[in-house]
Amino acid sequence: MNARTVSVVLLSAFAALATACHPSGAEGPAVGREDLQKALQSRPVSLVAAEVREEHPTVNLVGEIRAFDTVTMAAEVAGRVEEVSVEVGDRVEAGDPLVQIDRESFKLRREQADAELAATRAQLDLAARELERKRDLVSDKTISQATFDQAETAHDLAKARVAASEAALAMAKRDFDRSVVRAPSAGVVSNRTAVVGQWADVGNGVVTLALGSAVKIAARVPSHWVPYLQGLEGFDFTVRPGDSPRHAKLYSIDPVVSEASRSFEVVGTAPAADLTPGLFANVTLVSPEPVRTLWVPATAVVASDTPRLLTVEDGAVAVLKVQTGRRDDGMVEVVSGLDAGQEVIRDVAGLSRGLPVTVTGQE
Q1: Is pTM, for the whole model, over 0.70?
Q2: How many domains does the chain have?
C-alpha cells in the first residue's frame, strides 16, 4: 500500500465519519477536514540498522541433579522379610545384601532337594547294576527278552528321576540365593519399602537404589537456542552459593522441542562426590562456536504475542514478523525475519501498519 492509496482510504473514512456525526451542522465539514489533515500528516521517524555481533551466546538456567540410573530391587521369591540390612542414604557396593526373605525355609528346601537327589542316584546305581546282570543272563538265554526289557526300562526311569532331582536341587539353590536381595552395582539407597515381618510377593519392590559413581545434571533450554549448541561438549554448573563452578560432560541433547514449553533438555554428567540427586543446579551454557547475531533496540519491537518490527515502504509503515530471543541492556536479539543491514523504525510507539511517515534520521 503506497502513500497515495493510504491518503485516499483515510480521506474516505474521515469524510464518512464527518457526515455521520454532523449530517446538517455547519461545523461538521470543518471538523472533519481538520481531523483528516491531522491524520494524513506524515509522522517523523528515525531508522536504525540491526547491530551485528560476533559472540559466544551464554544463557544461565536452573537445572536439577539426578541419579545417573535408578533401579528398584524387587523380591524374586515369596516369603516373610527376615532382615533389612540398609537404610535410606546408605552407600552400597555390588553384591551387598539389602533384604533377606525367609532364609531358613529356602535352606530346608535346598537340603530336601539335595537328599532327594542322593536317593535317586542310589536308585540309578542299583538299576544300572541290575541291568548289567540281566544283560549277561539274556545273552545266555537264562532269562527272557521281556525280563531284560523291564530291567532296561527301570534303568531309564531311574536316570530320568536323577535328572529331575538335579533340576529340583538347582531350583532350590537358586531360590535360596535369591532369598537375599543384593545390590546389582555400587550406589546409594534412595528409598526403602521393606519392613521386617511383612510378606513379600514376587515382584514387590523392596529397595530403590541410585546407581553409579556419577550423576546427571539436566536443564531445559529455550527452543531458540537450538542453533547455538552445535559442537557442545559440556557446561559449567554450581550447586551452592559461593561454590566454584564444576564441569559436566555432555551426555545428551533432547532431539525434540516440547510443544507445551517450547524448550528442550540438555543433560550432562559429573562425578557424584557430594552431589545429592534432587538438588537444584545453576547451569551456564556457552555456545562453543562464535555466532553472528542481530540486535535491535527494545523500542523497535512491537509488544504483542507475535513479535514484530516496523519498517518504511513507499512512505508508509510496513510490518516485519520476526522471532526474538535474548534481551541485553535495552537491546533485543532478532533470531529470524530480519536481514543484516536492514533498517527498521527505532521507536514504534503510536505507529501502526499503513500510517504515513517521513524518515528524519538514519543510524
Answers
A1: no
A2: 4
Q: What is the pLDDT of residues 217-275, one digit of tens each?
A: 999 999 888 888 888 999 999 998 888 999 999 999 999 998 898 999 999 999 987 88
Q: Tens digit of pLDDT for each residue in 164-187?
A: 999 999 999 999 999 999 999 888
One domain for residues 168 and 128? yes
- 233 domain-assigned: yes
Q: Look-up: residue for cell 477536514? A: 33
pLDDT at 30: 52
Q: Which domain holds residue 10?
A: 1-41
Which amino acid is present at 324?
T
Where does residue 248 rank: exposed (0-12), middle (13-18), buried (19+ CB within 10 A)? buried
CATH, residue 219: 2.40.30.170
Q: DSSP character for 186?
A: S
Q: What per-residue string of b and e applies to 167-184 under the rule 16 or more CB within 10 Å gives b? A: ebbeebeebbeebbbebe
Distance from first CA to last CA of the chain, Å, rounded? 25
Cell of 91: 552407600
Q: What is the largest CA-CA distance in the chain?
A: 149
Q: Does residue 167 form part of some domain?
A: yes
Query: Helix H segments across 140-275?
Result: 145-178
Contact 319, 35 (CB under 8 A): no
300 Cβ neighbours under 8 A, 6+ residues apart: 48, 309, 310, 332, 344, 345, 346, 347, 348
Distance in angstroms (rounded) separating the CA atoms of residues 68 and 186: 12
CB neighbours of 195 closer than 8 A, spacing ≥ 6? 81, 84
CA 68 to the chain's CA centroid: 13
Q: Is residue 161 part of a domain?
A: yes
The residues near 93 (Cβ < 8 Å, ≥ 6 apart) are 183, 186
Question: What's the per-residue H, E or C state across 289-305?
Answer: CCEEEEEEEHHHEECCC
Q: In this structure, what CATH number is given to the domain that contains residue 359? A: 2.40.420.20
Distance CA 207, CA 184 (A): 12
Bridge partners, residue 249, by sequence = 234, 269
Say how many CA atoms lie within 13 Å of 330 toward its Cβ: 4
Residue 238 counted as domain residue:
yes
